[in-house]
Write a structure and sequence with these properties.
Chain lengths: 153, 226
């Protein structure tokens, strides 16, 4: 019986508890219902830099990266953002941290641990967030405007 | 041997005994039509997608990669098939390319890229062949559909306008210089740079691979970034 208990828990739990559960990430629906996916939209392709929400935030990608190859053969991002390419491309150069290995030594080029750009940098699409975001940046907070958890649009 | 050739030559140069001149002329004309039609039909057949991807080499590597790119699946349903980009449309150039393709038949028979590993090892070489061809003919196969004169810069992104209105417009760059690797995966670029000298150097390398990419922004143009 003791061995069977976890199994019973797994079998019974969805039926017993899930019906009332609502998951907002899931589209404000009971978890067992399948939401209709929102239509796909085109990503921002304006090439205009956006303000970062905090100093350490990896900057977002203000252009389309659809079909960009990012594997061991080629890194499409680096064809413009590498140090040697920025003169021609006028793209922002990858920051100095990208040349450092984990011990803080500077390498000649992009550090392998920073190779996969989209681990941190992402393009943006104009869609409503799935959940409310109450984040306020530090300047807003220091000004006192955001005290009390004001929702930042 | 020479005697045999002589006998055939005598048969050929003797006037016909049994057939009228009209029959031979009209018959020859019709036979010519049939031959020409069959030749062209067969030639066009080798330009079809099922023919190209009949080989597993093409089907499992380059065709897989093409799926998902804008030239295969897109909102308007216009598709570029293999021959649209890899076979010239003009007759003479097409025949020249088809003769070069006998090398590919050789490769197929002797299995030069019949595994994924062999294909990947050959990819820098194969890519440089195509890059060199497209650079030499000013990206003719791109321009069969994408006409520079009909491009509406106001409908392009700022970066696209910058590149298209400067170096492309002046003819210093051609499509493949920036749009390399849009239909198939790029080869190992480090390997490509190492092998480039024996494949024609910069003639085989798109500018974006060799290191001189798009045109710098004109200094008088105000940057829109904060």
């Amino acid at each position: 019986m003791r061995r069977l208990f976890p199994l019973l828990l797994v079998l019974l739990a969805p039926g017993a508890g899930a019906a009332g559960l609502v998951d907002r990430l899931h589209g404000n629906l009971p978890v067992l219902d399948e939401p209709a996916p929102p239509p796909l939209t085109n990503p921002d392709n304006s090439d205009v830099r956006r303000v970062r929400n905090y100093a350490m935030q990896p900057p977002i990608i203000p252009h389309k990266i659809e079909g960009y190859q990012l594997d061991k053969s080629a890194n499409r991002c680096m064809l413009c953002h590498a140090r040697t390419r920025t003169g021609e491309s006028q793209a922002p150069m990858i920051s100095v941290t990208h040349f450092m290995d984990r011990d803080g030594n500077f390498l000649a080029e992009l550090s392998p641990r920073r190779y996969f750009c989209v681990q941190c940098h992402v393009p943006q699409v104009p869609v409503a967030p799935l959940v409310d975001n109450r984040f306020i940046d530090v300047d807003t907070m220091l000004q006192g405007a955001g005290m009390g958890g004001a929702v930042r649009k | 041997m020479i005697g045999l050739a002589k006998r055939y030559w005598q048969v050929l140069r003797r006037p016909s005994v049994h057939y009228s001149l009209g029959f031979l002329t009209v018959g020859g004309f019709i036979a010519g039509l049939v031959f020409w039609g069959a030749f062209n039909t067969a030639l066009e057949m080798t330009n079809t997608e099922p023919f190209c991807i009949g080989c597993h080499e093409m089907h499992d590597n380059v065709y897989r990669e093409l799926q998902g790119t804008i030239h295969f699946t897109n909102r308007s349903g216009v598709r570029a098939k293999c021959s649209d980009c890899h076979v010239p449309h003009a007759w003479t150039a097409k025949i020249a390319r088809k003769m070069q393709a006998s090398k590919e038949v050789w490769g197929k028979i002797f299995g030069s890229i019949d595994t994924r590993d062999k294909f990947e090892a050959a990819r820098p070489h194969l890519a440089m062949n195509e890059w060199r061809r497209l650079k030499a003919n000013d990206s003719l196969e791109c321009r069969n559909c994408h006409k520079f004169d009909y491009m509406d810069f106001t409908r392009q992104s700022p970066r696209a306008v910058r590149a298209h209105s400067t170096s492309l417009a002046r003819g210093e760059r051609t499509c493949i210089d920036c749009h390399a690797g849009i239909a198939h995966h790029l080869p190992d670029l480090a390997e490509v740079r190492r092998l480039a000298p024996e494949h024609g150097g910069d003639k085989a390398l798109p500018a974006i691979v060799s290191g001189s990419g798009v045109e710098p922004e004109p200094p008088d143009q105000e940057r829109r970034t904060p």
